[in-house]
């Protein structure tokens, strides 16, 4: 804890540049108490840990949750001082009695009120959602920042995201999803922008590292869309995923593969327009290859060039797969009211239009542009795949 009350009711914030000598004198003369539970707290001024307040042993203050680590305390302090340098007059550890919550930091920008939470340890979805809804109910825009200790980078393009990480997804435009991290050791923001899952575990993202003293507020509250995914890297990972599907022990029991086989399809020989990046598929846990292939089997595979394909049928087919648990959706507490499934389906149809798989009859009806062609051999598939990506990559990946 970095704030306490004096006996006079004055608030003492350790983020405001107090010298140790001054604090030592205050500790001898003053009594400090917790701003929330009003119980006594101790001012700790050690040489190894950051200066902080601590409740007496045995105290059960509900706001001293998580037993804040040194990593968390330092990060919270650094974020507070960053906002101060920007001239935003932030308030550290602000308690709002209306919702009975204490934010790590609050600040105002252009008549908008923000509540910043710096999260370095796991919390449940229910706690995350409750706190988010609490802030929204009193007019705060919540900004959740993950601790850099939670970052699991695979390479320059790929990051391992768990469902815990995905809770922190924030949406800034129809096609831009972001998860911000902050590392208190390196004093850097790690901004994951334009997040695009390719498997349940891994997602592509533009990874931007910014030193805290170089960071602009706009990059946190209104980021811009960054560089797109490289088509060759996406295709490499997609083919790796296909290989993993059929090499996994017991793969014959995989419901997706079993349904492919029952439809006389081979995961290695699927059309190249299955398994493509769709901006709002971040709301779908099921990998793009799988949910797009389900749509293919349910709708497109059984159509000819004269068959009208209604968007309503596509949507109902997708929702039926959800009810059967073939497709799973992701809960996104920071953007849960949006119609992301509809957006994802429309964006995928837009790709199919651009790649001449379907064409538009009217705004709700489509038809195949030409008969469905399924590759019969690996060589045929490779040729079709190479031709597809060479012809359409710029339309699919550069937006």
Automatic annotation (TrEMBL):
Residue ranges annotated for the Competence protein CoiA-like N-terminal domain, each copy included: 16-63
Parts of the chain that traverse the membrane: none
Database matches in InterPro entries: CoiA-like_N, CoiA_C, CoiA_nuc, Competence-induced_CoiA
Competence protein CoiA C-terminal domain: residues covered: 233-380
Competence protein CoiA nuclease-like domain mapped to chain residues: 68-224
Protein name stated in the entry: Competence protein CoiA
């Amino acid at each position: 804890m970095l704030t306490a009350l004096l006996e006079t009711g004055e608030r003492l914030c350790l983020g405001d540049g107090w010298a140790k000598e001054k604090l030592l004198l205050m500790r001898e003369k003053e009594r400090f108490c917790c701003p929330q539970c009003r119980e006594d707290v101790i001012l700790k001024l050690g040489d190894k840990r950051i200066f902080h307040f601590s409740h007496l042993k045995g105290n059960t203050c509900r706001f001293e949750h998580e037993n804040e680590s040194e990593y968390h305390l330092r990060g919270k302090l650094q974020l507070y001082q960053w906002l101060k340098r920007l001239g935003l007059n932030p308030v550290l550890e602000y308690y709002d009695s209306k919702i009975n919550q204490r934010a790590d930091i609050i600040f105002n920008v252009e008549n908008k009120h923000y509540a910043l939470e710096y999260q370095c340890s796991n919390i449940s979805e229910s706690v995350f959602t409750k706190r988010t809804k609490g802030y929204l109910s009193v007019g705060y825009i919540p900004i959740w920042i993950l601790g850099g200790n939670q970052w699991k980078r695979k390479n320059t393009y790929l990051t391992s995201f768990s469902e815990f990480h995905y809770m922190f997804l924030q949406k800034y435009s129809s096609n831009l999803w972001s998860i911000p991290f902050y590392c208190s050791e390196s004093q850097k923001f790690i901004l994951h922008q334009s997040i695009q899952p390719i498997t349940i575990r891994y997602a592509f993202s533009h990874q931007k590292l910014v030193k805290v003293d170089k960071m602009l507020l706009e990059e946190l509250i209104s980021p811009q869309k960054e560089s797109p995914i490289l088509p060759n890297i996406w295709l490499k990972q997609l083919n790796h995923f296909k290989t993993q599907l059929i090499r996994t022990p017991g793969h014959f029991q995989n419901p997706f593969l079993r349904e492919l086989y029952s439809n006389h399809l081979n995961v290695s020989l699927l059309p190249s327009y299955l398994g493509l990046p769709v901006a709002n598929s971040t709301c779908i846990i099921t990998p793009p290859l799988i949910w797009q292939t389900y749509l293919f089997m349910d709708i497109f595979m059984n159509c000819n060039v004269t068959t009208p394909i209604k968007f309503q049928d596509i949507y109902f087919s997708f929702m039926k797969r959800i009810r059967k648990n073939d497709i799973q959706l992701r809960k996104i507490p920071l953007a849960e009211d949006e119609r992301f499934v509809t957006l994802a389906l429309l964006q995928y149809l837009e790709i199919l239009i651009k790649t001449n798989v379907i064409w538009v009859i009217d705004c709700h009806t489509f038809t195949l542009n030409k008969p469905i062609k399924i590759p019969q051999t690996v060589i045929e598939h490779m040729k079709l795949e190479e031709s597809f990506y060479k012809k359409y990559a710029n339309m699919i990946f550069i937006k």
